Amino acid sequence: MSISGSKSSHLLEKGRKALGFPTQGSFRKFLLLSLPFTLFILLNSPYLSLPHGFCGPSKNTLRAGSCYWFQHPTQHRYHLALAVHLCTLLPAGLLSIPQFIPRLRHRYPALHRWSGRLSFGLAVPGVLSVLFLMDRSFGGGLDVQSSSVFLGGMTLWAVGKAWMTARERRFEEHRRWATRAWVWLGCIVTHRGVMGVFALYISLVGLGPKLAATVSCPEVWEMVRHDYGTGLEARVAWERYEMCGPFGGANGTRSEGAYGIVYGDLMSQRPEEKAAALRLVFGPAFWVAIVCHVAATELYFGRKGTSGGRAGRAMDGVEGEGKGVKSL
Q1: Is the sign of the CA dihedral 299, 156, 316, 288 positive or negative?
Q2: Is omega for the bond preceding 109 within 30 degrees of 0, making it cis?
Q3: How confident is the model at residue 243 (pLDDT cuts 50, 70, 90)?
Q4: Tens digits of per-residue pLDDT, 217-241?
Q5: Which residues of 5-22 are buried (b: 16+ CB within 10 A; e: fewer)?
Q6: N or C: which end of the chain has fewer CB within 10 A?
Q7: How many CB atoms lie within 10 A of CB 144?
Q8: CA angle at residue 229 from 141 to 252, to 5 degrees?
C-alpha cells in the first residue's frame, strides 16, 4: 500500500470512529451519498436570493426561457411555487444529512427528533410545489410531468411511512423509510449528470436525424434577448424561426401560443438550441436516475438480509440506540 493510500485509510478510519459508523463500508456509503448531495445544495444556495438568484441579470442563458414564465406579470403561481420549492427543499436536504450520523443520533436524540420533523416538514411543501412548476420546467412535456409526479409521490409516501413508523416506535423500519425518502429524492443530483451525458450524446453521437424540440416563441425571444440584448431579439428570432416573428410587441405577448421548432445541440452557439437539447433529455434522464436510486436502495437493504439484519445496522450505526428514544 502506498503512503498516500495509507494516509487516506487512516483519515477514513478516524472519520468513521468520530462519527460513530460501525464499519468503513457504511462510512464510505455515507460519504458517497452525502458529499455530492451537500455540494449540489451549496451550489444551488445562491438561488435562494429570489428573484435575482435564479432569474436575475446574471442568470444562465439556459434558464432564460423558463424564467420568462417564472417572472411573467400574470403568472404569479410560477414565481410563488419556485420560491417555495427552493426555500424548502434546499434547507430540508441540508438538515437531512446529519440525521444519518450515528453518533449525533445516539448522543442527541432530541436534536435528531426535532431536526427530522423540520426536514420532513420542509420537504413536503417543497415536493408539492413541483406540481405548480412542472408544466413550464424544461418545456413541461409529459415526460417531465410524469417523472416529477412519480418521484414526488414516492418521496411523500416514504416520508409518511418514516413518520408513522417513528410514531409507532418501530425505529428500524423508520430508518429504512427515511433512508429511502432521501436517497430517492437525491436522484436529482444523479439526474443532472445523466442529463449532461444524454445531451452530449444527441449533440455529438446521436444516430439518425437530428432531434428537435418545440419551444414557445416567448421563451425563444427571452433567450435571444439574454444573448443578444434588448432590441435585437425580434429580428434574430424571426430570421431563425418564422413562427416567432416580431408580432405582439416588445414582449411577444400575442405569440405565447406560437412555437418554434428548435434543434437540440448542446455544442451550439445558439442558446435556444442548447436549451432544446436539455429539454429533449430531461424526462428520459430523470427516469433513469429514479430507477437507479430505487434499485440501489433496495439492493442495499436486501443484500444482507431482511429488516433487523446487518444492512440496517450498517446504515444506522450504533445498535440499540432506539432504546429510550421518544417517538416523534
Answers
A1: positive
A2: no
A3: confident
A4: 888 877 777 666 655 555 666 677 7
A5: eeeeeeeeeeebeebbbb
A6: N
A7: 20
A8: 50
Give the integer Cα–Cα distance in Å for 97 and 267: 36
DSSP state of 129: G
Say what percent of the chain tops pLDDT 90. 37
On whether the CB atoms of residues 272 and 262 are closer than 8 A, the answer is: yes
Average pLDDT of the residues in 122-145: 90
Provide φ and ψ at 320, rounded to 5°: 70, 15
Spatial distance between the Cα atoms of 279 and 204, rounded to a whole number of angstroms: 16
219 grid coordinates: 421563451
Q: What is the DSSP string of 151-181?
A: HHHHHHHHHHHHHHHHHTT-HHHHHHHHHHH
Q: What is the DSSP string of 243-278?
A: GG-S-STTTTGGGTT-EEEEE--TT-SSHHHHHHHH
Determine contact, residues 216/259, Cβ cutoff 8 Å: yes
Q: Three-class SS of residue 213? A: strand
- Characterize 244-261 residue by residue with b for buried, 16 or more Cβ atoms within 10 angstroms of its Cβ, and e for exposed: bbeebeebbeebbebbbe
Report d(CA 79, CA 327) in Å as an integer: 37
Q: What is the pLDDT of residue 320?
A: 39
Are the C-beta atoms of residues 38 and 97 closer than 8 Å to each other? yes
Q: Flag whether pLDDT at 278 surpasses 80.
A: yes
CB-based burial label for 147 (10 Å; 0-12, 13-18, 19+): buried
